[in-house]
């Protein structure tokens, strides 16, 4: 199990607040991105994506064992805690949710406390993930990749924390076709770059969906290529934007890919 510095644990005791008081506390915590059901009170009933992320989870949940007794979980970009809570409710021994946003962390702490589940939430960026000791049986890296200016750098760091499985989700745009591309192309071959199914990431210079942190949006082939290139084996694709992966050859000659790249020894 990973040992964590500076823990901020939730109490584990369900708060028996009446619904109107619960609704007031939920509203006080600002706008929620996760629609959680806190004893019958919804935290984001008007979410623009519908009942989010339940609409995703209903496809993903079967790719993860129902009984997670003894498992350790890292939830990167945990937001209001939806995935952390799901994993804890399946019996995980230790769940750590990290995020850079205090508002979301406060929401997640409140939700976990209200539901009576003990989860550790910590303010930490994915780029600082090396500060967390050890590896985890499940690493959730959902909905963060496209918000990063340095997405592969982050993914190559996340790799270091996976003992069991990675559950990865990103927004995708463009072609969802998957083709078998060749091992190599000559300098003079350029036709494939105009094929919409060739691996590609769209760079958003200004804004997409009114969010200036949507930097890179890959097509499906690029996602799968990057996961494989980072040393992961794709074992499930439970819905169009989500992949479940096992760590494979994440090191080259005993050194993690990210360290080789940074040391200039690739
Ligand atoms: C679109 S939400 C996804 C939330 C949740 N993981 C999900 O899939 O429903 C993106 C989350 O990533 C967080 N985030 C953005 N950049 C991050 C970073 N560098 N490290 C950790 N979390 C980050 C945001 O604060 C936000 O909570």
CATH architecture grouping: 3-Layer(aba) Sandwich
Looking at CATH, the homologous superfamily is: Vaccinia Virus protein VP39
- Choose one word for the global shape: globular
Tally of DSSP helical segments: 7
Strand-and-helix sequence, N→C? HEEHEHEHEEHEEEHEEEEH
Number of domains: 1
Ligand identities: S-adenosylmethionine
* Count of extended strands: 13
Query: Which fold name corresponds to the CATH topology?
Result: Rossmann fold
CATH class category: Alpha Beta
Strand content: 15-25%
Unreliable parts:
1-13
Could you describe the largest sheet, including whether it forms a barrel?
Answer: 7 strands, mixed
**C-alpha-based Rg, rounded:** 19 Å
Terminus-to-terminus distance: 31 Å
- What is the average of the pLDDT values? 93
| Strand order in the largest sheet | 5-4-3-6-7-11-10
């Amino acid at each position: 199990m990973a040992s964590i510095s500076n823990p901020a644990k939730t109490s584990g005791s369900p708060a028996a607040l009446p619904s109107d008081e619960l609704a007031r506390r939920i509203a006080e915590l600002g706008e929620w991105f996760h629609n959680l059901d806190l004893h019958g009170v919804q935290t984001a009933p008007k979410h623009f994506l519908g009942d989010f992320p339940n609409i995703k989870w209903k496809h993903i949940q079967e790719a993860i064992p129902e009984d997670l007794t003894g498992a350790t979980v890292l939830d990167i970009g945990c937001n209001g805690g939806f995935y952390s809570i799901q994993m804890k409710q399946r019996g995980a021994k230790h769940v750590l949710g990290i995020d850079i946003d205090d508002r979301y962390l406060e929401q997640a702490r409140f939700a976990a406390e209200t539901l009576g589940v003990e989860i550790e939430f910590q303010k930490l960026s994915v780029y600082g993930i090396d500060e967390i000791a050890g590896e985890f049986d499940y690493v959730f890296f959902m909905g963060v990749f496209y918000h990063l200016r340095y997405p592969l750098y982050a993914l190559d760091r996340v790799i270091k924390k996976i003992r069991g499985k990675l559950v990865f989700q990103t927004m995708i745009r463009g072609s969802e076709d998957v083709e078998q591309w060749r091992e190599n192309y000559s300098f003079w071959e350029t036709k494939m770059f105009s094929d919409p199914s060739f691996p590609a990431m769209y760079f958003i210079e200004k804004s997409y969906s009114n969010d200036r942190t949507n930097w890179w949006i890959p097509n499906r082939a690029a996602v799968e290529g990057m996961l494989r290139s980072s040393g992961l084996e794709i074992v499930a694709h439970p819905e169009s934007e989500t992949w479940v992966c096992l760590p494979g050859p994440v090191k080259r000659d005993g050194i993690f890919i990210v360290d080789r790249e940074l040391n200039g020894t690739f």
